[in-house]
Specification:
The chain contains eight helices and 15 strands. Helix 1 links the parallel strand 2 and strand 3. Bound molecules: N-oxalylglycine and manganese (II) ion.
């Protein structure tokens, strides 16, 4: 396995590994070490089936089931419960209509976020496999929350060290004006709490834990919190911290949600198919239990 750094050291292309085949322990350790160093790994030419993608993901840790993440009902699902459907397709593989409620909800992916930060145990890695890509557009952008943290001034670092934020899908969708949630969805998507600064348990590096799912800071007036969080997010997503991935069919891109944010870019969503399938690794535990590292 070889790692070829891109975007500084933030991302890397990985060569010399076949993700369709079972991995040995050395390959698994190599991938984890690569993720701690780079935070985004790009594997080209990996024509995975769903079963192979799920098996590869399980090699790396506990898979997160896609249960309470979406407004898509069980009988509307196109993919198995181990996969998040990041396509513009319905359960019959037809393109979602422009005004489809599921499409409106999925547009939240256009906002910078960290996957499953709306859960009390948020995601560790996400693995996104490109099965069908549009003729133009549809890049995915990644921002390095370690570099963004490092670039903060000492006063800001001290101020945010122990802040706790509240995250919910209601907040991120609300930013786009999607607010017609059912009573059941409001319960399912109730806010959870996370540290604003988190520490990678292996490397000891700190990162900013930002996400569009944030709707407040505990103990702060909401507008003041949101203005501050927006300011931090603007600083953290400046071009020098961003890697923009232009997809090729059969790419698999893996990112560390603890150390990055990402967002989807536009494409012709109602006239071209983009079939992307995500598997997700569960995080180690609530960030609120993580001790600050001196
Ligand atoms: C995701 C996601 C962005 C994209 O898979 O979690 O946000 O470009 N994807 O589809
Ligand atoms: Mn995402």
């Amino acid at each position: 396995m070889r790692f070829i750094p891109i975007a500084g050291e933030f991302a890397a292309e990985v060569e010399g590994i076949d993700l369709c085949a079972p991995l040995d322990a050395a390959a698994v350790a190599g991938i984890h070490a690569g993720m701690d160093r780079h935070a985004v790994l790009v594997f080209h030419d990996q024509p995975l089936t769903d079963e192979q993608q799920i098996a590869f993901t399980r090699n790396l840790g506990k898979i997160e089931l896609n249960t309470a993440n979406n407004v898509t009902r069980l009988d509307q699902r196109r993919l198995s419960i181990e996969m998040s459907d990041i396509s513009n397709l319905d359960q019959h593989s037809n393109m979602l209509a422009r005004d489809d409620r599921r499409r409106a909800f999925n547009l939240g992916n256009r906002l910078w976020h960290s996957d499953s930060s709306f859960k009390s145990v948020s995601a560790k890695y996400s693995l996104l496999s490109a099965r069908i890509i549009p003729s133009a557009g549809g890049n995915t952008e990644f921002a390095d929350m370690r570099a963004a943290y490092d670039a903060l001034d000492p006063e800001t670092k001290a101020e945010i060290e122990d802040l706790i934020t509240e995250h919910s899908l209601l907040f991120s969708r609300g930013q786009l004006g999607f607010t017609d949630f059912t009573a059941e969805e409001r319960v399912k998507f109730a806010p959870v709490r996370h540290r604003l600064v988190r520490t990678n348990p292996t490397t000891g590096r700190k990162s900013l834990f930002l996400s569009s799912h944030i709707g407040g800071i505990v103990g702060w007036p909401v507008p003041e919190a949101m203005a501050f969080v927006r300011d931090l997010a603007e600083r953290a997503t400046q071009r020098q911290f961003v890697y923009a991935h232009t997809w090729r069919q059969h790419d698999l891109v893996m990112w560390d949600n603890r150390q990055t944010m990402h967002r989807a870019r536009r494409y012709k969503e109602t006239s071209e198919v983009r079939d992307m399938r995500r598997t997700t690794l569960e995080g180690d535990g609530p960030t609120t239990l993580q001790m600050a590292v001196a």
